[in-house]
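Many introductory courses stop at the sequence. We go one step further.
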Amino acid sequence: MHRILTIALALGAGSAWAGDCDHERQLDESLDLSGASVLAIAAAAGSLDIEGKPGLSAARVVARLCASSADLLEETDVLLEPGSDARIAVVTPDTSGGFFSGNRYAYVDLEIEVPEDMPLDVKDSSGGIDIENVAALTLQDSSGGIDITGVAGPLEISDSSGDIEIEDVEGDVHIRNDSSGSMSGQDIAGSVLVSRDSSGSIDFEDVEGDVIVEKDSSGSISVENVGGDFRVLKDGSGGIRHRNVTGTVEIPDD
């Protein structure tokens, strides 16, 4: 069984969606997570804030739904699915509308509180992301800055554009792909693996394990206070700096 929350408000003047909210509805709901081993979150355009808290058995979802027209807002939903495949999903309408569509938009700003020991699988299309004090985390993001603080397990990120900032991770960090934007991390109890980075600087410090960059196309690389090895397997352009690496250092020849 699932629950769909559909919102409609009166018509008003339209405008570009960057920060505007001509038609709005506030939502405050909870999602029972008993029986769930992972919580899937599928956000869309808009900001996304997730915070883990002790003692919770349900997720609290606070949302601000905005659109340029009442019709578009009527098609903007937040879907809550309990059970073993627990899920929170944002649904927004197609706002392209052709050449004469004008300034059409629909987006949802989400604030979600989750049990601090609940693993998360998060997908987001655009807008800033702030995540704090959570368990194991997998994140796929298309655009917008990412700020993650406090992960009690492994962290895996795939990102198309926007800066990535990571702090206080108890497990390994794997950046599968980062197309553009800088990435930085500190206070990581495990190892760091950057599989592919297209552009932007890479900075990591205070890493207990290894730091390995498999492929970097452009941008500087800097590491400091690494307890294991530091290896850059393939680098296109940009300087490489390392300081206080306990293990082996392997970087490409200039």
